[in-house]
Cation transporter
Amino acid sequence: MKDQSSKRYLWVTVLNVIITAAEFIGGFLSGSLALLSDALHNLSDVASIILAFVANLISKKHKDAHKTFGYRRAETLAAYTNGVVLLVISVYLFFSAIQRFSHPEPIEGRIMFIVSLVGLAGNLLSMLILLSGAKNSLNARALFLNMMSDTLSSVAVVVGSIVIYLWDWTLVDPVLTLAASIILLKEAFEVTKDSANVLMETNPDIDLEEVERAVLTCPGVKKIHHVHIWRYSDDMVMLDAHINVDDDLTAERIEAIDQEIAVILRKKFGINHVTVQAECERGMNEDIISSDVDD
């Protein structure tokens, strides 16, 4: 799996370097802002892919005394960084397109068309290479969405180059750039939001009342409180909670209850790392979400 991920990142990097060089040259020769904006986007893709590749390697490292949870969040950090960079680029492209409306420039449609076909082929191939890994990794998903937006942008640039070549309507160039920047802004916001939610240890849309009802089905459990649920990484959802039990239960029975709770939460909610603290009377009047700052 590690070798497959590495190969995917390598091939996509090579393709994007080729696309970037072709579009920068073609953009300057043709005078197309759409090509130059696409080249700038692809240049950021190269940096994003390298960052994602490094993060993927780091995430495979084993736990140690300094990182007792391991290094899986390296990929989440990479996805967040890529998202922020894409937000900045989309805003830059948006204002560049606005300025081009008031200062139109002549564009060579034939050069724009040839180069845009190169960009389309490279972006489409990159998207297909990343497709298989996008289902299980937020980092890979960020890159896949990036490649998908590049592909859509390349399709628009191809169409725009045809329009410019046939009818010499150069305003289609900033129109395409404007549309691409808006699409990119939306996708970058989603990736940034999702990765930020992981970093902020946000509850991944698990109903706490359902969790409470499920836990209370375990014999011997009277109450659950001080519950924390968060997604640590793409494949790990964690729960930390306190439960109230009878004061005459043995340690062996409490351990069995912990195991029962872990099985229920994994099967019903996909929570695969459970830590439960058993108590007798303490916390009986507490809510499922504690209002205390330190709990």
Q: What stands out?
A: Residues 73-102 form the longest helix (30 residues). The chain is about 65% helix and 10% strand.
